[in-house]
Amino acid sequence: MTPSGTTSGGVPGPAGQPAWELLLPAAGAPARRRGRALQEALREAVRSGRLAAGTRLPSTRELAADLGVSRGLVTEAYEQLTAEGYLRGERGAGTWVGGAVRAGRVGAATGTGGAAAAGPGGRDAVAGAPDVRVDFRPGTPDLSLFPRSAWAAAQRSVLARLPHRALGYPDPRGLPELRGALAGMLARRRGVVADPERLVVCSGVAQASTLLGFVLRARGLRTVGVEDPGSPEHGRLFASTGMETVWLPLDGEGLRPEPLAASGVRAVVVTPSHQFPSGIGWSAERRAALLDWARTIGGYVLEDDYDGDFRYDRAPVGALQGLDPERVVYAGSVSKSLAPGLRLGWMLVPEALLDEVVERKRTMDLGNPVLDQAVLAEFVTRGGYDRQLRHCQRAYRERRDALLAALAARLPGTEVSGIAAGLHVIARVPARFGPPERFLARAAEAGVALRSLEEYGTARPSDGDVRLVIGYAHLSPSAVAEGVGLLAGAVGA
Amino acid sequence: MTPSGTTSGGVPGPAGQPAWELLLPAAGAPARRRGRALQEALREAVRSGRLAAGTRLPSTRELAADLGVSRGLVTEAYEQLTAEGYLRGERGAGTWVGGAVRAGRVGAATGTGGAAAAGPGGRDAVAGAPDVRVDFRPGTPDLSLFPRSAWAAAQRSVLARLPHRALGYPDPRGLPELRGALAGMLARRRGVVADPERLVVCSGVAQASTLLGFVLRARGLRTVGVEDPGSPEHGRLFASTGMETVWLPLDGEGLRPEPLAASGVRAVVVTPSHQFPSGIGWSAERRAALLDWARTIGGYVLEDDYDGDFRYDRAPVGALQGLDPERVVYAGSVSKSLAPGLRLGWMLVPEALLDEVVERKRTMDLGNPVLDQAVLAEFVTRGGYDRQLRHCQRAYRERRDALLAALAARLPGTEVSGIAAGLHVIARVPARFGPPERFLARAAEAGVALRSLEEYGTARPSDGDVRLVIGYAHLSPSAVAEGVGLLAGAVGA
Q1: C-alpha torsion angle, residues B8, B14, B20, B25 (rounded to 10)
Q2: CA distance B273 to chain A (A)
């Protein structure tokens, strides 16, 4: 990682020395909260333009001393913001404000922290075929974790307090109280720039894709780029709006810039926080490169934050949208955190597209049901949503660990990746258990439903290894172990 | 009304004498229910083809004697089915099975009775502008009549009983239990052919319009006919799908056949039960002529049954869809019967369009929220929906009567039409209170919000009379009287 050409090679930027003490986290707060406050303050300073691109930051030692906090806390903040693309650094040369962020925008902006929710748009409803004993297909959370009593309490409360007029034709953008609640939650958990005026409540990421597709098609776009590997559902949704999809190759860091530039597309759909299906997190360079591309050609990025809520072994990476809310449409939903059947989601829309998206939402359905929106607003505002995420996070980490242990024990040599986050992993089973066709056929015979990675892209490796996309979140630890056991038995492991 | 050329002029049809006793309503049932049962049985016999077009029916005297029921009950059944287009009759020449119905279809079919619900698609959300004292703009029911306790009870019950898997990605067509409940209710109340397999749950008539528009546009249609006068919202919704609208003139009986045929459109949107905004009910001839047109050219009709639930002085006229479910898309919603904010509606779709409509619904939003659907299913199944309609019907009739009385007293000479049904009337105020521009300006100054009929079509009469579309359902009787009083004072009446 090197400073970009526009920075002055580590020299303090033209803004002069910022008042670092303004970054001081509240004294007396626990270390974890102070670390988070520091990250939020730094991120906001970069966004607002108070820290201009190229500004050199103090060393971690200096800033820690200035602020009276531990050096580890400052180091962690620098690393986190570097991963997100706000800062750049090089060993021995210090840390600068990067050029990725679009500085000087309006709108509130805070935090990092947890993760946001989204639905991949019916990517894989788990079918309950009678001969399926264990279903490893990804796409559905554990529906038994839906917080029925808390939801029922919120429903009661809403029906008791909502004024009559709220039952009329809704604002197509969504209920103001929900837009406010979501904006706060997303800024805090996902590091997005969440202005309630730019937030449009929709029925999920699928509808967000269709809304954006129609708007872009009306502007003359005919193609949209999708990640390869990626979700074929994105392509189907955009196809319904008259847009053709172009597969764009990924490597281990994200979308490769050259094929993107050569493709001629002016819009892309990406999953940078936990790429679907590969499970990688995009590198800071690739995040910055994508935004550079979008700014240069006036293009748009749809960020499908489909499982940003679930992180197990590391701090969450803030959403791409935080770096440039004028080029990135951010979309998420409650489909993974609560239930897909609620059909509730959100999008944060660049100013230039907002009116068109809202008018399209209006003609599509006049807006989402108001009672559901009021219930979610209450749930978020009263802390129920955060509690639900903590609860799911614990459950899903346990299941992931059960999957990793079972694969290690029963299909030794299997490489598992994309494990730090989300509701699925990629498993590469050694060729000696293959070849892939035979492996998948035996699994099906044994009642184990599986998805091959090949179903999600154009790559057809010939090494004989079996590449699987394994969803585990909807299965109990014992069902996970049973499924891997059935699999191992079926392929003679 | 004369027998059509295809009937044998009053001679019994080729099917021979039907077994009239099969039409016998259950003995011992109260007269009202027996009358209804007779109507349902006759309608079903015509639909199924058991009573072929041209079949001459027994005289009312004969059939009443055969069935052991009162003659009045048979007369009423004949009149009702003649109004709906199933039968034809001529004084002195008897009654025949008409040619309008498409006989021999599959699918359950029953009943007449109440009326169905629909939303005109955000036609007129009543704005609460601060200077508006009484708002007569049509489009919203009385939101304070929403049955909060009963709805809350249904919500509780649903959350307690719904299986976990029901919370997953929904069937885009809708929850099976709701589709079944709605099919039964609509067949009974609106006389539609309501096969649950053809019923698609959607967010209301607006979404039904958009769904159909996209499907027809993909089939190459570029224009859709709308009633003149009619709702401009239909045009806006179809425009969002790439279809241009063509105004088609109405007269006192319905859409005029010649301009329709000459227009070149292959699809139309109509409101035959209580035309919006004129308030007329289409005549049986015009219903038949529209269906003839659709069959001849392979066209489609969207029937917006936006206020079919509300009838005050006469039996409801069955929906057009009952006459030909392969040419008519029937759409309705709970927007007038419960609340627009619920965003819940339904469409009955011809077999030939079904797959395309469902796939379009899927890409638009993956389907409606499941909890709401389950709550409505419970509400309909347990009788709550019928109770709600009875309750609203009583309230709205009282308000309509208050409006008629106030207009007669304070703006004498005003002609009011379209009063038998719905949530609005047409008032033609004599020119001496005008001219229209002055009338509307004075009304606005006095804080009375009004819609002129001119806003809903192309007609610009020059007689100086003031033609208004007055919505009354959302106003208490005293507010109605106050509004008319303000109006009369403002225009010097």
Answers
A1: -80
A2: 23
